[in-house]
Amino acid sequence: PPAAPPAAASPAKAPTNHRLHVLTPELTKRLDPEAQSNVAATARWRDSATAFLVFRRPTPGGPDRALLLTNEHVAGHRDLAAGPGQTVTFPEGAQARTVRILASSRKLDYALVEVELPAETRAAPVRLRLDQPKAGEGVYAVSGFANIDIPGGPEKGVAVNPANRAIVEAALKEDKRYMRSLPTIQLGNVETGIPKTIRVPHPITIVASDLPNRPGASGSPVISRTDHRVVALHSSGDPRVRPWTSSEVPIHMILDHVTSELKAGRIPEDAHDLTRGLLETTRPPAPAAP
Predict the structure, then answer these.
(1) Which of 20, 171, 233, 252 has the fewest CB atoms within 10 Å, i.e. the most exposed one?
(2) pLDDT for 148-168, tens place per residue?
(3) Residue 166 neighbours by CB under 8 Å, 6+ apart
(4) Are 205 and 247 in contact (CB under 8 A)?
């Protein structure tokens, strides 16, 4: 949603404009309540990518046990790339600590990660949608960490205006070897609802969107502008090939794989309650008795 015109403040109403919008406090306050909740659930994964909260269970006397979703190419396969105890930071400043990867797939480029979440953290899990993303469907993505150091200046891909220019310029001046980053929200549409397998460099199964993409946006939730439910996991994109084309992994494919991993006994037994809790929250309600 553009950071200036009030009429475009809601992802449910805003047009596609192929820009990364910096999530300043002012812009966040102008979003629909459901979009604000999705922003609060989206975190910076270490200092390189994005993850989002999909389930949490209170633990008396200690941190909550919770589940995050991100990419396999971000977290690693089965074993965290840099070991447990890594930091995941939510917009409010709360920091979760990684415990282990419970399920992952290179073909679907996802990792379901168990974390310890401070009990006082206000973030609520996102709502997931099980049907296939539809061609032409309006979506938005939230990134906890998106590189805004764009060739030709940030105006080429970032909605820069008087309300956020100082933040953008300050971020670009930061001395970081990897990237200059800010949390962002971006708008787009599903280009095709037909899953296909591509190589980037390993075969993964995705649908396509025209969402803006930058390094660091990996692991972002892709959310319907209509009902604010997460329909896909952002996996990749290459602006050099086509200015705004992204690869998204449908949520229902990920949950189907998690279900098969659970049934096959490949998820640790002491995490079955978390995994089943996630799957149960996404099941459609039972039909009412006649």
Answers:
(1) 252
(2) 888 788 888 888 888 888 898
(3) none
(4) no
Residue 250 scores a pLDDT above 90: yes
The interaxial angle of helices 251-263 and 272-282, nearest 10 deg, is 140
User: Cα separation of 128 and 170, whole Å?
Assistant: 35
pTM of the entire predicted model = 0.88
- Please give the C-alpha separations between residue 16 and each of 4, 192, 267, in angstroms, as whole numbers: 15, 16, 40
Q: How confident is the model at residue 182 (pLDDT cuts 50, 70, 90)?
A: confident
DSSP states along 82-100: T-S--EEE-TTS-EEEEEE
